[in-house]
Amino acid sequence: MPDRHLVCRKHLARDLNEPTCSRTRGTVNFPPFEDLDEVSVREARKFHIQSLGSIRNSGRRIPYKTGKRDFHEKTGRDFFEVFQYDFRVPGDDTPWTVMWDYEIGLVRTTPFFKVCKYSKTMSAKMLNQNPGLRDISHSITGGSIMAQGYWMPFDCARA
């Protein structure tokens, strides 16, 4: 429990609007993939994932408040229930946060574009080039800074 408290405080320091950590709520339909063999763990360690093996032990609720109503209309919710972890590309100290809603399976894809040094508009261009993807993805522009960006269904993000 003390380690979990330290992780929460670290995230609060990055964004004062962030909620504190909480236990998972609801159903975990999209658990973290942490049961890795030794070779996979060695590869993951290259990306400095400190919480590998314990991501599933804590969840966060991130409220979503904005003038846009489409997220609530499409999901019936005004929050995300997320698991998250930070990683660093070898040779670069910039932390990148992977975040996904473990209940409904939306993945915040913004860091994947940023880590590849794509422009801010590349995410929107990608959505436009894949018919139907924009209809099932969400552009979050208000609320917590950590939740802002494009969120898409798990299977689409994985592909």
UniProtKB/TrEMBL annotation:
Q: What is this protein called?
A: HTH APSES-type domain-containing protein
Which PANTHER family does the record associate with it? ASPARAGINASE, TRANSCRIPTIONAL REPRESSOR XBP1
List the GO cellular component terms: MBF transcription complex; SBF transcription complex
Molecular function via GO: DNA binding; DNA-binding transcription factor activity, RNA polymerase II-specific
InterPro entries per UniProt:
HTH_APSES_sf, SWI6-like, Tscrpt_reg_HTH_APSES-type
Q: Which residues form the HTH APSES-type domain?
A: 69-159
